[in-house]
Task: structure prediction
Amino acid sequence: MRILKIGILFVICHLTFVISSHGATWLDPSYKWKTIETPHFSIHYPKQLEEIAKGFAPEAEGIHNRLSPLFRHTPEWKTNVVLVDNYDYGNGMTTVIPNPLVILYVTDLGSNLSPYSYKEWLKYVFLHEYTHVLHLDTIEGGAQLTKLLFGRILFPNALSPRFIVEGLAVYMESHYGSGGRVFNPRFEAQMRVDILEKKLKTIEQASMTTIYWPGGNLSYIYGAYFIEYLAEKYGEEKLFRLSREYGDYILYDGIESCFRVIFGKKLADLWQDWLADLDKKYADYKTKEIVPTFTSSGYYNLQPAWSDNSDDLYYTHRDFGSYPLIRRLNLSSGKDTKVAELSAFDDSMSILKNRLLFSKPQYYNNFYYYKDLYLMDLASSKISRLTFGERTADPAFSPLEDEFVFTKLNQGGRSLWLYDLKAKIRRQIGDEDPSISYFAPVFSPDGKKIAAAKKSSGDQSIYLLDYTKGWEKKIADFGLCGNPFFSPDGEYLLFDSDRSGTGNIYAYRLSDQKIFQVTDVPGMAIMPKVSPDGKKLAYVNYSSRGYDIAVVPLDPLQWVEPDEKRYRPPAVADIKPLELSVSPKGYYPFPALLPKLWMPLSVVDENGRHTSIFTTSFDSLTHHAYEMQLSYDAKAERPIYEIYYANNQLFPQIFLEAIDFPVNYRWDNNSKIYWERYLSQAVYASFPKYALFSEYDSQAITCSFENINLNNITSLDALTAIPATGNVRGVGLGYSYSNSRTYAVSISPEDGIDLYLSSKFYSKALGSDYSFTNYSISSNQYLPTPVPHHILAFSETGFLSRGEQLSQSDFTWRYLTLRGYPTTYFSGSKGGKATLEYRFPVAYMENGLSYGLTFFDRAFGKFFFDVGGSTFGNVSNIYLSKSAGGEISLSTVNGFGYVPIVLTLGYAVGMDPGGEGKLYFGISSYGQKITKGGVPGDAKRSIVL
Result:
């Protein structure tokens, strides 16, 4: 009963591009939410973003007016748009189930790694996200019947290869707005090097999130240029025709037949045509020399920072198989060592006299994920935090030692600041226009000037500032420029730019204002850093592996004057905002909270099978969420229901449940069936806390009250053993803590602990007919082994019940499962078990069938040893039984990423009385957690920008 309902909900949640990583309280309860209503949108925002929301509303309507006719579609419900500013990274997310909903972070997406040329961030990101809404929400022909019968539950275009969904959105952002990624040289480099190095991913991999570089970005990169090819060769209209006609799942037998009709070729053949076209396009790059690098791991190796002795390079490292790091590379020995595990990424780092300045994000006040500044003593590895929740980044030491420059984020803009380490005083310098963004500031060797990349209305150029005299001037304005750095003699200012259509490093000579090209790479060269002795240049080089650190001699004699020819993206007609007047009002969760989908299920009671209806919904802010299964037994004149509700509007989180359900037990030694009417009302209050002892741990304290009523449906006269009936009422207290870590390559958590403690007290003083107390504990510890991703996992569970005993299970006694023994062999009011498992990956297949309809992800195995037992008597009476065995599992992802399934084959042997040798097979899912109240979390797949 419960399993079936969760299974259906699981499928529904995977058929949406969920925003529900926000399934818990993710918004500060102190926010005062407002709403602006326009003809096609409900725009929700905290009061402090009101001016931004007012400016965004006309832009949103302008985008609808431009895009809706192209798709020939307008959603039947208004699209809800939520503007938030609690996260220091730019992004957008979209779902169409149960309501069209877009979440936009007002933080600019631009960074030291990926500068952008869009003029307005929110307009740019919304154009991408609203493309998803119009594309996925399109339902035509026969699919309309499904919608009429079951509501907003099935969207055929969502069941497309991911590279089509994301590729179309990137295409639209590029051709109907400024700064789109199709025409961004740094984005294109990621496509080009795969062609040049013959490291192409398969079409199935392009539809998934793979463990190989570039991971989740693959569908964006390949998808964007594949859709661009289709539009150029066959006409843009066919892209919109694909959206309309595939929106009718009855019209075509899958994506393949749809492509054959619209484009006249199979999708696989079009893919090969596109790759051949790219091979010709990039032919001129094949003569460029491949750059040797000091690191070779790929993924992300960024922001090199030289030690004072010019022999050590510190840099940030991220991959898909370990926690982010700061590492140290010694050039003389080639030794590469870990300095610290922390989530620094592409913000600047700076070293002076054995001190390292850096920034990293961390939860702040439980609801914000903000960057702050830190200072590390490299001799002792001691780290001191300099700012708290101030949204600071890109620190750089002054040669004057006790001062540094940094940037500060505020509602999208990045201002420039100085910090006095001795006086602990901050003061703003540079342009104070809040729409301006500064990146990667750096001091000149004499400490008198600062160079920085400055972004203003689509242009990002290098500026030189004299902060003592209050002036600044632009010194390099071709292409997107970033990451300036002075040579130690102050003669040159190096920076990266995509001036030629390829990201390369350039040098500006301050004495005569002349610019030279320093590198000429086939991929991309960024983030230049000159060694303190002035002899070496370190920079980040891009290849098909990702980003690695290269080190070359600093030789100005080898530099050349840049070609006069400059890359300029094609001009795009800007979408004009729609003139309208707006009147903000208070936030109201309806109509988004109204049920928009329903599914027929069934329930069974003593009178047979009955049809039930399942529905679920949540409002735009996930303040409220619910799921319900409703039925009625006409013969018994009795309702049957399960209702769960979550309130994330307050702190603590509140969960409510109400259940009236028939339950059957095998009774009197399995000779009879006993039917019980189980009625329950419960309330839970949860207090989550993030980043307690580290940047990645969390805890939650949960208080609960339960009121359960047990009524017999079966006549008690027919039974020998009399079941418990009446009220069971009590309170509970639970505690959970987790600091376990899992990575994209992992087949299990790889380190840390997951702990859960629970105590429940049922008392006649609370109106219960029974008094008893239950205690339970569950713990999992994970230990890495010397072999990567091979894990030793220890788990322990225990339970204890004291007081009156009820006949039915799961109140005062329970079954304990031990592999290698019958499921109901162990039972008692006290018990426990311990498990030791050796878990290991077998293979990463990373390929599939039908363009990602079925994707074989990885195979993994485990050997295990279990020991446990239970009793109704004293704990000393527990006989510990043992078992051992092994399992092999195959992880698959189906339905273009929405339905992950794990197939497991195992064999276990019980070593003590009652044990048996047993071969078993299991089917399970992963990646989706359903919390109380029906809010889905930790989704395997979501659309993000």
Observations:
- Residues 534 and 812 are 75 Å apart (CA to CA).
- The radius of gyration is 30 Å.
